[in-house]
Amino acid sequence: MIRPVDENGFSAEAWTRNAAAYEAIRTMPFNAELAAGTLGEARFRHYILQDAHYLIGFGRALALAAAKSPEPEGIVQFAKAAETAIVVERSLHGGFFRDYGISAETFAASPLSPPCDHYVSYLLATAYGEPYEVLVAALLPCFWIYAEIGTDILSRASAGNPYAAWIDTYAGEEFGTAVAEMIAATDAAARDVSPALRERMHRAFTRATQLEWMFWDGAYREAAWPV
């Protein structure tokens, strides 16, 4: 596990508060079958399409975090994170898009699923309407949970797993370093805030964690708009 440097800081407390939710994510059918290499292609295809949509919104929220950062170092960190979300992670998606024959036109024509739309809308509403401290707390679960899930799946993944590229990306050292930097930035933001603002940060972290579960669950169900 990627452990915060400050064991008494906001991030450590937030993770403890949401440990049950993380365990629900770790053991949910999507991730169990992904580790076993038995996840159906249709489900992963749905996931990868929605994740590509999500990363556009996530990148915008990161860019807004850069704009709101009170320190120059934060501007650089979040601007680079936005670039990574758009360029690096989308290159991962691009490989799967080619494998599945998903063209740029197909992607553009695919609507955001209800869970994806909810998550992106939540992050952008938080980015526009909440202070920097709350925004970084809302952004942290996506980083941290993906790194922990990637590492966990790597430890139990089947040989010749068809989703190895995905697993290797999120279990990799480079992504782990980015997560550690995000944890440190969030703890720095939480330092010396009022109890009321700290609690707003906790609510944002919890809601984003819940939306992580909803996103993977929606991919497993191939969720679509009912009407």
Automatic annotation (TrEMBL):
Pfam family, one: TENA_THI-4
GO CC annotation terms, alphabetical: cytosol
Domain Thiaminase-2/PQQC, chain residue ranges per copy: 29-221
Gene3D superfamilies per the UniProt record, alphabetical: Heme oxygenase-like (1.20.910.10)
InterPro entries in alphabetical order: Haem_Oase-like_multi-hlx (IPR016084), Thiaminase-2/PQQC (IPR004305), Thiamine_Salvage_TenA (IPR050967)
Gene: tenA
Descriptive protein name: Aminopyrimidine aminohydrolase
PANTHER family for the chain: BIFUNCTIONAL TH2 PROTEIN (PTHR43198), SI:CH1073-67J19.1-RELATED (PTHR43198:SF2)
Lineage, highest ranks first: Bacteria, Pseudomonadati, Pseudomonadota, Alphaproteobacteria, Hyphomicrobiales
Transmembrane segments: none
